[in-house]
Amino acid sequence: MAKHVDTVKLQELAHKWLTGTLSKEEHEEFERWFNDAGDAPIDVPGFHAQSEDEHKQRLYARILDRIDGAEPKRRITRWLPYAAAVVLAGMALTWSLLEPKPAEETATVSIQDVAPGGNRATLTLADGHTIGLSEARPGIVVGDNGITYRDQSEEIVDLSTGVVSQLALSTPRGGTYQLTLPDGTEVWLNAASTLRYPSRFTGEARVVELEGEGYFEVSRSAVPFKVKTAGQQVEVLGTAFNISAYSNQAEAKTTLVEGRVKVTLLDRRSDGEARSSRILTPGQQATKSGSALALHTVDTDSYTAWKDGYFNFDGLTPAAAFAQLERWYDIEVVYQGNVPTMRFFGVFKRGKPLSSVLAMLKESGLDFKITQQGGKRQLLVINE
To answer: Do 292 and 175 share a structural domain?
Structure first.
């Protein structure tokens, strides 16, 4: 295949193959890539897998390695025999490469790997109607007359009536998406997050509400831009910053990359009345913990790497690192033994399967086991 191959698109097709959601056109595109990719087969014999689902996950991991150019390429005609039959406990399980069937729910089984998240989000309109957004596209744009994908290929919502509507963009666990607001402000939403915003900004302030984590590059204007989270408000005129304010975490962190922001604590007992505020300069982070607001100087890359497709675990406790893995891989983390307290150091691609990240984290002395109980996937962290 030509060197300018879109690896992000191929990774998306690979994930759809794994989940059985390839359209006919995508099926043909994926197959063309394999037919043009070379001669070496992907060999993942079935007797190394404990279930059909594990075998598919291992094949999927190998596909991603090939897409990234980590191994020699091959033809689909050479690969099909390895995917066509799986031997499990003396029984032959036959399944189709391009039309896999979901594995049946069982008690507790070990699985080899978990696929990474991708472009997944839902748009909620003012009347409550929801629209599942394309996983093949990274984001949407709110324009004067409608909402379109970033490539302008398709109108999703007609806004030509001019009526200002409240909208919401939500990502699930294992999802991320981009949004261009009506004023040109760019927003990246991390996994398990929601941004509420108007179809057009009016009045004396541009106001949005965030639950979860988002990175903002605010379009400059004389009209202040405000981001509200639970008990906190961040106000800017034009700047780049990251906010992490998940409801299941004790702290909310605002990290300033460039410009200036004002972080204000809001008193819920006084109907949103301001209680205290701090001004941040680049490289500073405001941490809200209960009714306290503290300022620190930080390495901003550690808090914005997710936007560029990386985990930056430098200096993180395992609990903080595993919280990111939970949201991105849609898993539940449980501990065998004491909760580890050492610090992790390393930067890892978010587009890799979970096993690739765990292989590097094992250098810390921890061990891991991925299991599935019914429909829930768990990461067992072994610290003994």
So the answer is: yes
Contacts of 183 (CB under 8 A, 6+ apart): 201, 206, 219, 221, 223, 225
CA distance 84 to 8: 26
User: How would you label 274-306 residue by residue, b for 16+ Cβ within 10 Å and e otherwise?
Assistant: eeebbebebebbbbbeeeebeeeebebebbbbb
User: Considering 276, 303, 330, which residue would you say is the last residue of a domain?
Assistant: 303
Within a domain: 131: yes
pLDDT tens for the chain, 384 residues long, are 334 456 666 767 776 776 667 787 777 777 777 666 544 444 444 333 444 554 555 566 556 656 655 433 333 332 333 332 222 222 222 233 444 444 444 455 566 789 999 999 999 999 999 999 999 999 999 998 899 999 887 899 998 888 899 999 999 999 999 999 999 999 999 999 999 999 999 999 999 999 999 999 999 999 999 999 988 999 998 899 999 999 988 899 999 999 999 999 986 554 445 568 899 999 999 999 888 899 999 999 999 999 999 999 988 899 999 999 999 999 999 998 888 888 888 899 999 999 999 998 888 889 999 998 777 899 999 987
Residue 133 CA to residue 112 CA, distance in Å, equals 29
Closest CA to 60 of 44, 76, 75: 44
Alpha carbon of residue 119 to chain centroid: 7
Q: Is 203 part of a structural domain of the chain?
A: yes
- Overall domain count for the chain: 3
Cα 88 to Cα 79, 99, 101, 198, 377: the distances in Å are 19, 20, 16, 54, 21
From 278, 303, 328, the end of a domain falls on: 303
